[in-house]
Amino acid sequence: MNHLIPEFDYQKVIIDPWTSEFEFSIWIIVMGALVGSACGIIGNYLLLRRMALIGDAISHSILPGLVVAFIIFKSMSTLVMFLGALVAGVVTVVLISFIEKRSRVKSDAATCVVFTVLFALGVVITQLLAAGGSIHIDAECILYGEIAFVALEPIVEFAGIALAPAPVLRIAGVTVVSLLLVMAFYKELLITSFDTGLSKSMGLRTSAWHYGLMIALSLVVVSAFEAVGAIMVVAMLIVPPMFAAQLSTQLPTRIMLTLFHAVVASIGGYHLSVWLNCSVAGAMVVFGSLMFIAVWIYSILISKIRKVA
Amino acid sequence: MNRSRHSLAIIQLLVITLILAGTAHAARISEITETSIGEQALRFFTFQDRSLRYALLGSLLLGISCGLMGVFLVVKRLSLMSDALSHAVLPGIAFGYLWNMTRDPIAIFIGATVCGLLGSGVVQTIRNTTKQKEDAALGFVLSAFFAVGVCLLTMIQNLPGGNKSGLDQFMFGQIAAIGKTDLYLLGGVTFLVVALVVIFYKELRATSFDSAFSRSVGIPSSFFHYLLMLLLAFAIVSALQAVGVVLVSAMLVIPAAAAFLLTDRFATMLVISAVFGMTTGSIGSFLSFVGRDLPTGPLMVLTAGTFFATALFFGPKHGIVARWWGRRSRALIVRRENALKSLYRVMENDDFQRDFIIVEEIATQRSETIEEVSKSARTLQKAKLIKISHDKKNLTFTATGWRRACEIVRNHRLWELYLTRAADFAVDHVHDGAEEIEHVLGEDIIRKIESELNHAKLDPHGKAIPGWEDISAPYTTPSSPTAS
Hints:
Chain A is an all-alpha fold. Chain A has helices at 10-15, 22-48, 52-73, 78-102, 107-132, 139-144, 166-184, 186-194, 196-201, 206-247, 251-276, 280-308; strands at residues 155-158, 161-165.
């Protein structure tokens, strides 16, 4: 028990990541911040639509999509992975709504049935493939990813300029694209999230926007998958928007707060993981959750004070 | 099914499993040496290994407790709660391990249960003190607790000896690693679940379906809610070794959801769900045993998923195929009855002067071609409702056909009259409603409507309502309905 929590070494925990270890740690921090941002932007809309757990479902069912895409195309390129994730995401949503509409099983049970079965399928196929020696994905990587590997990836060069490791570039692209999409379709997303009646009367196709959001979600999740794994991606989707929702009711402000949360949680989580010598992604989520708990307690105190005053 | 019969069924299940428990003796799965798949299967079915009996017994017990608890989750729409709780127990497993640095099932059980209850407490607190919705609260507990657990597990792996802790088996489960204490825990939890479900069957059923009602009859529904949460935490934690953190919610929800598709009775649903749980549990552990490296949890879930899909499509009453078939045959009946009705109208237009109907007249009245009319006439003839003359120009009703035609017309016109008189509908607004309900009105309701309307003879449009005399009159020489 004594050895569990290492001594807090100020030099090693706070200074080194920004000096001697900078080359290594910066990419992990950037990756964490980008994963949090991309997931958080989409997560804001999931929260508004009360679909936080659809994020959970899709993050699990991405796995069979990736594995099947790998088997079909014999490649693990970005395009193949995105394709697999996209198909898996759509299949999940379609299956859930099929069960919900065509049987008496309610949406919560339908969600649970669909994603657990798909995830189990993915795990079994992965294990069979691993036994056959064609790919090696271990169970832990599926569940909580390994963000630290990002720093070991070769840095992609473009026109002679060293840019960043490939996963970082990928998630950066996804973050920028989702930010642009959210800005371009701000009004439509807002209305379809809040008021299906109004949006139908304005000629917006709510189900098309729903599926669009689900596709964006699948792409975000797959690019975050290798860094944070199937389960902690849920935290990346939900915790930053929850943090933001405690502080603001305005959607643009919330999105800004989400980005702020993602960056701070990534930096804080990295330091935490260096100190405790534990999973980086896990520490980032723990730090982010602590941030939420802080604003939660703050808002409880504020309302108590207001009551007294 | 009454309470005692239902209790009996569950107790029988329990006794069977306990008999099996008596035959199980101590042995570790590690004693099993490498063998081929065929030999493995042989060993499974001949129960040579005691460790195998452990695994099988474990999966049966697990199937019962998870199956029973799952029913409440599905009915109370708490499926995702179980998902959140099962992930939230992970730090508890780590703390249980840290207690004395071994994988002591009791310590892990206590740690995980405490963590699960803490998780459900946090969900409740978030809902009570913030504007966050339930799904967000569940997602937060699921992922934040899990992250704490992951941090702790990775920290444990850095400890001396931590690498061999075997805690990673808790992710996807490995039933082969199940030990004697695990079995006792599983048995204890299963016994507790079965006992409490049998004792509090009525109360649990009432609170599951209608908590407002159960409060009004004096059942403390929040007490039973927390009791369920406690049992749920027990069921999840005891199943961890076999199924793993990630998929234990599937073992809770899928058998129950499949049972939900097969029955309308709560007690039957409990029994079916427990049986499904046991079956999927043992098939899953068989597959895991045969395919050496495969984790048990996913295999059980895939088996359960197959059961669910079968129930979803081929369930006798609520299955998709059965519903589709039912809709189709209903549509067929409605079409047939509408055809009979229009034949009746053709006869009525002639004031029932003839006892046969000319095909051409039907075609003119329905604006259809002769071929179309003959085609629908053939289906009616096949159903023995009409007869087609040899030259195919005339139709006559059979006795059943005439009766059904009269009934449909009567239903239609009575309903129209009822709507105009009792519900104050305008005369020109009643046709569409009557057009749909005429096919489903039963004799009891017709009797009621008739007496309500003082056995009126004319519908709002002034047409005669075929009376009992017309319907029961043998169709040899159809006279005109008495009122016309």
